Amino acid sequence: MARKPNYRFDRMEKDRAKAAKKAERLKARQERSARRAEGVVRLRMR
Fold first, then answer.
1. What is the structure's pLDDT at 36?
2. What pLDDT sits at residue 18?
């Protein structure tokens, strides 16, 4: 028997993951701008 879908819970989980990813990106962006303000430049290696 298939499980009953819980759309509200699924949506909450999706939104929580999206918010965490957004916060992580914002933190990285702020750290980069702080380093740039200090005059430290980091080159990306590809």
1. 86
2. 98
